[in-house]
Amino acid sequence: MDALEQKQEEVNAAGAQVRALKAQNADADAIAAAIAELKRLKVDLEKDLNALKEAGNAEAKAKEEFRAKLGQLLEGRLFYIPSFKIYGGVAGLYDYGPPGCAVKSNVQQFWRQHFVLEESMLEVECPAVTPEPVLRASGHVEKFTDLMVNDVVTKDCFRADHLLEEVVEELLRDPMLKADRRRELEDLQACIDELNVEQMSAALKDTNTKAPVTGNDLSEPYPFNLMFPTQIGPSGAVKGFLRPETAQGIFVNFRDLLYYNGGKLPFAAAQIGQSFRNEIAPRAGLLRVREFTQAEIEHFVHPEHKEHPRFAEVADTVLSLFSQDAQLGEVKKPFPMTVGEAVSKGIIANETLGYFIARCHLFLVQIGIDTNRLRFRQHLKHEMAHYAADCWDAEIQCSYGWIECVGLADRSAFDLKAHSDKSKVDLVAYERFDKPIEETVVEITPNKKVLGKAFKKDAKPVTDALLALSEADAFALQDACAANGSAPLQTENGEQQIAADMFTVEKVTKTVNGRNYTPSVIEPSFGIGRIMYCMFEHAFYIRPDDEQKTVLRLTPVVAPIKTTIFPLVNDDKLNAIAAEMNKMLTTNGISAKLDATAISVGKRYARTDELGVPFAVTVDHRSVTENTVTVRERDSCGQVRVPIPEVPGLLGRLCKMTVDWETATAGFEKQATAADE
Amino acid sequence: MDALEQKQEEVNAAGAQVRALKAQNADADAIAAAIAELKRLKVDLEKDLNALKEAGNAEAKAKEEFRAKLGQLLEGRLFYIPSFKIYGGVAGLYDYGPPGCAVKSNVQQFWRQHFVLEESMLEVECPAVTPEPVLRASGHVEKFTDLMVNDVVTKDCFRADHLLEEVVEELLRDPMLKADRRRELEDLQACIDELNVEQMSAALKDTNTKAPVTGNDLSEPYPFNLMFPTQIGPSGAVKGFLRPETAQGIFVNFRDLLYYNGGKLPFAAAQIGQSFRNEIAPRAGLLRVREFTQAEIEHFVHPEHKEHPRFAEVADTVLSLFSQDAQLGEVKKPFPMTVGEAVSKGIIANETLGYFIARCHLFLVQIGIDTNRLRFRQHLKHEMAHYAADCWDAEIQCSYGWIECVGLADRSAFDLKAHSDKSKVDLVAYERFDKPIEETVVEITPNKKVLGKAFKKDAKPVTDALLALSEADAFALQDACAANGSAPLQTENGEQQIAADMFTVEKVTKTVNGRNYTPSVIEPSFGIGRIMYCMFEHAFYIRPDDEQKTVLRLTPVVAPIKTTIFPLVNDDKLNAIAAEMNKMLTTNGISAKLDATAISVGKRYARTDELGVPFAVTVDHRSVTENTVTVRERDSCGQVRVPIPEVPGLLGRLCKMTVDWETATAGFEKQATAADE
């Protein structure tokens, strides 16, 4: 029980005391004293509650200010902006402007390098427009829904869970709430995402949830499919959807991909592309949008051999794990553990899943996600689909809370089996046994000649019925025929009388060299936009000396360009050197941008800081006389003077992140920070 | 008149002669002789017609065989495959498999390098889901249609122009066709793409076009919109479409992009992304699909200053130009001309358009398009939109004919004006005059005090009417008031009597420093899939010595990987060197793939040839003793022995295409072609 709850109990006890004294007709002084005590306790509780509320308000206000400042930078510098702005925009649709586009391209390129190329994955590109049967097989047509409610008067649409969440939060903010009701609401709050229609309906009534703004009654909740519907072709007969994920394109191509891979397992296929979700009420900027870039991997593996050949390379990676036990335990906090230990202890289900969790961790850290605000949360039993063997989300903390940015799931054979069932095409791999095995099977052999003679055109149903008999039934029929000369058999065309000479049943031993099986799939699925937004939050800061100086601490891997080049003043000689420098860096694969605008270097530094450019090269008068330039690092604002021919090498090393600034520049002349900075 | 037409005329003449002789009751021998001559001429004509038909059939068959072989390679090696194949596929939707995905990524990356980075364009990424008003403003909701007809019995849908085209072709194949009817049909054939509803209806009737297969009557033609429709949000109230082109995303962001560019013109924005067209009857593989990648540039420029600062760099580029005059002239053939001459002669409208045509030519040639099968065709006057200043298509010849792969248009101010009109947001740039100019304007100044007193609450409409007067009307009113003391004025609330003291009119001279104007836009628009398909056709050949050996002559720029690495036999030492080689090349940015499968090197070469890999490194026993490997070039099959440390340098030079194979390998030991090749 926390301090507040205790005080609440004391107030309740004091109230009871006053009532008891009054009921007993006690001494007036005693009653007065009890009332005074009750008042004192109430005032004290009130003070605590106000302080709590203010602290909450202050925190909320700080977050809002932070987001406003970051948003000002990101939208102002066109990292991203609401789409179709001149037409009033559309919720949940965003454009990436030039620097955002460059950062996104870098994130995707690094993802391709880190996963696809490093592991020789098979990359594919499939269309977004998808015919209905594919998404019916995958379960999306039936189950990819959110619960919706309408304002019964205005008909406005709302997500039921959003409304319920807000009301429950509001109710929980009431300090006078009874303890058992509080527990009830807290339990509800924990599972709002997973309520079915009936549970949601009950919860909305229980909490007396009304439409926001109008306060009108709400309709019963009902499922709304989140896929954008469309029609393929002119007749309107072929129903389609925009894909809600890129994964299905890989599953339906499994057979061709397996063939391309020489029939060998394991292998992984990958796809980067747009996915679409027609969210009911998009909010939270890039975190919940209607069109977004996904990068998905489907790693196909033998269901009984989920070891990974490169697991040893990542086994020592320390992860922040928020396992099922940790979530259900007393402390409810993630713990650090190497992935090797987590797999060996069975916390993570298998090596391949563990391998991808570790590789995902390494990817996120290298693009600039703060490890202290990154955790891997295991899905609880009731969150997981029945077929899933294990499932973890990479969650990144930002001002909106802990955000699911990557899903890593062992989906067993579900997807391939689902598509195989619906398409009637086998999606299996073949395994050759180490040694051929002997298998005893029961063989039923209909005697076609006798059957044909006896049943004429009805011979086929009889034959089919014979072949469909179970082992036990076949022998029973044989025994009955042996005993009675003939016996009845149920066929498609009714019961028929079967004679002993119409078939034989025998046990046969066969040599089997291998078998077909449906592979398991391990699926790491990345939401590029969400990761980018969290990355921007982690990269954003304000220089302590100046409220106006905002900076994006983007790593060289993702920065939109690696360096800017400034001629100190507008001078032909300086401009020529700067242009030469620009060409030299670009040729060496270091993306650079020349900024020769006639404003102070300090202002140009500020501009480059906002774009997250890690380095700046300034050409000054000593460049002309000494053939040197200064190189500045964004975060430390450290500056060194470097001979021009050495600049590409220095920046190349720094951009590869193999060496830090202090070490890399140890041999160069340190420069004082420019006066105008 | 061609030889065939002449023979046809001779037959006609001989027929007339026979009829004439008969009418004259001429001598029987003379008639017999005339009949014999007619027969001879007919037989001769028949022979020619059959030869022509056979030649046509042979050509068609050769094309089909070529396409079948190429298709076998491209689909067999998963360059691309029909999407959702296990569900029977959907016409016009294709997946790129691993090598296709790599080639596509290389084409796009090179496009980005050649255009976006080289010219510091502003790259953006906008959503595919687009609200209706945007596409209404652009004209797509009303005009982005194809004419459709239905089989009146089965209701099957067809593209009217496709059916008409087939029927016209069939009719023209009839050798006995009258000359004037032939000319009529040829004229129709030339403009089938551009018929409006009424013209199409007439043409279908005139040619007696019926539904294919069934032979049923057709409905009247009607326009079918080619955009995929969808709905945004849960209420169904917000209508949307999948974008039919990426360009609109740039236009609607013009204001922000101009601001980002410091308010300066000219500048270009670019976007690579998916576009969607719900084709009525997709055919011709990757050439006409329902979802495809576009790469578009919008270069914004002052309408009176379409010079380009870098034009001199491309002025000497020789293009194959199929200008309006060439198309309408006698010869109907493109001609070679430098872009410099074409612009100076006014054949290409301006330098900026010429610059992009030349850059487009260079791009296509570098990715492997055969210059002899590339031409730039100017749109004829009636093909061009009324607003377009000039328009050229890069057309590439393949087995389907000349295919429009890139459109290059000077669209003047149309797009920005259209969006400005509909969105009510100014999409303009500001130009500062070199010298401020003096402008004389007429100023009407209502006397508010007097008006207020006279008209009370009606003063506003009167004031508005005064301010809305033209210069001439204002002076006329002033004169009338001066003459008569007052004069009538038409206002929103009817006629009012205006007195002389209620307003003044005078000419004022003002200094104007600049003005707002709507920029022109020059739009190069690339269809990546079409270009790739033509590139594959140009790259495909069969080795003369073996029907089975098919090769893709892909340039190193676009090849899916640059080199394969083969250990000659499966041996630990060789495998180790091969692995080391692989790492060495990859580190040097040369994408490589190790192929250690236990099949002959010849077979492995054949496999790598089909994937279009330009080089192959073979590790053999001399690699162990001498530290050398052999390097093989795909098309010449030439092989040289190279010291291992020199391999990355050699391949690097070859992949940059700065030096040819013969020159690059001059210093190395030539190897005989392997026996098993």
Characterise the protein shown here.
2 copies of one chain form a homodimer. Chain A is of the alpha+beta class and about 675 residues long. Among the domains of chain A are: about 70 residues; about 80 residues, Signal recognition particle alu RNA binding heterodimer, srp9/1; about 130 residues, Anticodon-binding domain (Rossmann fold, 3-Layer(aba) Sandwich), CATH 3.40.50. Helix content of chain A is about 40%, strand content about 25%. Chain A has 24 helices and 29 strands. Chain A has a 9-stranded mixed β-sheet with strand order 3-10-11-21-16-15-14-12-13, with helices on both faces. In chain A, strand 24, helix 20 and strand 25 form a beta-alpha-beta unit. In chain A, helix 1 packs antiparallel against helix 2 and helix 6 runs antiparallel to helix 7. The radius of gyration of chain A is 34 Å and the shape is globular. The interface between A and B is large, with 74 and 73 residues.
Give the secondary structure arrangement, pairings included:
The structure is a homodimer of 677-residue chains.
Chain A: H1 3-23, H2 28-76, E1 80-82, E2 94-96, H3 98-117, E3 122-123, E4 129-131, H4 132-137, H5 140-143, E5 145-150, E6 157-159, H6 160-172, H7 179-190, H8 197-206, E7 222-225, E8 229-232, E9 238-242, H9 247-252, H10 254-260, E10 267-276, E11 291-301, H11 311-314, E12 318-322, H12 324-328, E13 335-338, H13 339-344, H14 351-366, E14 374-378, E15 390-398, E16 401-410, H15 414-423, E17 429-446, H16 448-455, H17 459-467, H18 471-484, E18 486-491, E19 494-499, E20 503-517, E21 520-527, H19 528-539, E22 540-542, E23 550-552, E24 563-567, H20 572-587, E25 592-594, H21 601-610, E26 615-619, H22 621-626, E27 628-633, E28 639-643, H23 647-655, H24 661-664, E29 669-671
Parallel strand pairs in A: 3-10, 12-14, 24-25, 24-26
Antiparallel strand pairs in A: 1-2, 4-9, 5-6, 5-7, 8-9, 10-11, 11-21, 12-13, 14-15, 15-16, 16-21, 17-20, 18-19, 22-23, 26-27, 27-28, 28-29
